[in-house]
Structure formats: structure tokens, C-alpha cells
Write a structure and sequence with these properties.
Strand content: 25-35%
Largest sheet: 5 strands, mixed, barrel
Helix content: 25-40%
Shape: globular
Distance between the termini: 11 Å
């Protein structure tokens, strides 16, 4: 089985690359894909780049060109649920685009016109494994499951945070997960998104983001590392 591991930034994939065996590189559509072995599993690791288009292209290439059968997306996010604190973990139960807005045509906020669904469910077995490992390796952080909202926006004000949490029931927000989820849904590929909170998506986001990205990325790495060690 080939497992695809995606991060949006260098910090989110660096640890995987340093731990891979028999690594080879191949560039497709401007994205570098690293194939090799990690914890005894065949993996393809890549940095998608920021935003939903980059994430979509990356995910489709992993499926079409590299034949991955499951996809894990790791990285950081901004907290929407007020119970979340910096460096807490959110494991996706589902993903949704928060910036899809065809309400003037009579659709719900987030609904993709004429598509069969706009809420993309994560694979329950992957969710359960991520939850189990998170509780084992991260004893100082809270672990939540919930809806991950994605949009090509860096959310940094409290009014928008409240809207996304209350109206769209988001647990956290970022810029790639729903794109990965939608492509996986279209290709019938199981996925899960694992996000470590780098900020609270409020007025302090620009202060917290860079400070906590490195630590948050390490936590996300620890979870996927544990998942691969416990893979069945």
C-alpha cells in the first residue's frame, strides 16, 4: 500500500523527509514528490504549497501518477472552537469550503452548486487511528475531532471566527484541507486531515502564527509518525 503524506509548507514535511529511506524525487506540475520508505511503509511525501488550487493539484497527482491508496494531510490551522488553545489538535471528521458562496442563487453557504455533496467525510478508520495515537504521544495537549473549514483566506478577526464557528460549525480553519478532501472523495480515496493549532484565528494570528508553526508542525509529524508505526 502506498500512503500519500501532504503538508502545505516546508516546516510541515521536513521531518518526514529526514526520516525517509531509499528516497527518490520526481517533479510534477512544479511540485516535488519524494517516494521512499518511512517506518516500513511505502510513502510519497510532498509539499503542496499554500491554498486550495495547489492542494488539489498535489492530491490528484498523488492519486493518478503515484497510485496512493490513502492520504494524510498534516499541518497547522487557526482555532475556531473557543475550547481550543494554541497547539491543541484537531482531527477532521469532515471538511468543507467556507469560501464557496452561491447564496445569491439560492444555495446554502458552502454548498457547491449542482454537486452531490459539499461536506466531505474523512475515513473513520484513519480518524480513529489518529485519535488513538494523538492521545498516546501528546499528553500535554487537547485532542478534538470536528469539521475542518478551508478557504483561500488567512482568517485573523474575531467576527469572522464567530461566523465560521456558529454558522458553518467549523472547529478550525485553514487553506487546503477541503480541497484535498474533495479530490479524495472524487477518486474514492480515504483521507484524514490532522491540524495542530498555530493560532486562534483572531487579531493575534499574525503574532502567534510564525512563533508556533514549528512546534505545531512537530506535533503533527509525531501523530503521523505514530500512525505509520501502528498501521494495520
Amino acid at each position: 500500500m502506498k500512503i500519500g503524506i501532504i503538508g502545505a509548507m516546508n516546516e510541515e514535511v521536513a521531518a518526514f523527509l529526514s526520516g525517509m529511506e531509499h528516497s527518490e524525487e520526481k517533479e510534477v506540475a512544479g511540485i516535488t514528490f519524494h517516494t521512499g520508505v518511512f517506518n516500513g511503509k511505502d510513502v510519497i511525501v510532498c509539499k503542496s504549497g499554500v491554498g486550495k488550487v495547489n492542494a488539489s493539484v498535489c492530491t490528484q497527482v498523488l492519486i493518478s501518477s503515484f497510485g496512493v491508496e490513502k492520504i494524510l494531510f498534516t499541518g497547522v490551522a487557526g482555532a475556531l472552537d473557543p475550547r481550543l488553545d494554541i497547539c491543541d489538535i484537531v482531527i477532521s471528521t469532515e471538511c468543507m469550503h467556507h469560501d464557496m458562496d452561491a447564496t445569491s442563487l439560492g444555495f446554502k453557504k458552502g454548498e457547491i452548486p449542482y454537486d452531490e455533496t459539499y461536506i466531505f467525510k474523512a475515513d473513520q478508520k484513519l480518524v480513529d487511528l489518529a485519535q488513538k495515537v494523538s492521545l498516546e504521544v501528546l499528553t500535554d495537549q487537547n485532542v478534538f475531532q470536528g469539521r475542518v473549514l478551508s478557504g483561500d483566506q488567512f482568517i485573523s478577526n474575531e467576527e469572522k471566527v464567530s461566523e465560521l464557528h456558529k454558522e458553518l460549525h467549523g472547529t478550525c480553519t485553514e487553506m487546503e484541507g477541503a480541497a484535498v478532501a474533495q479530490v479524495c472523495h472524487m477518486n474514492h480515496i480515504p483521507y484524514v486531515v490532522i491540524r495542530s493549532m498555530s493560532d486562534k484565528a483572531n487579531g493575534s494570528a499574525n503574532v502567534n502564527f510564525m512563533e508556533f508553526t514549528k512546534k505545531a508542525s512537530h506535533q503533527s509529524y509525531s501523530i503521523i509518525d505514530g500512525m505509520l508505526k501502528n498501521w494495520v
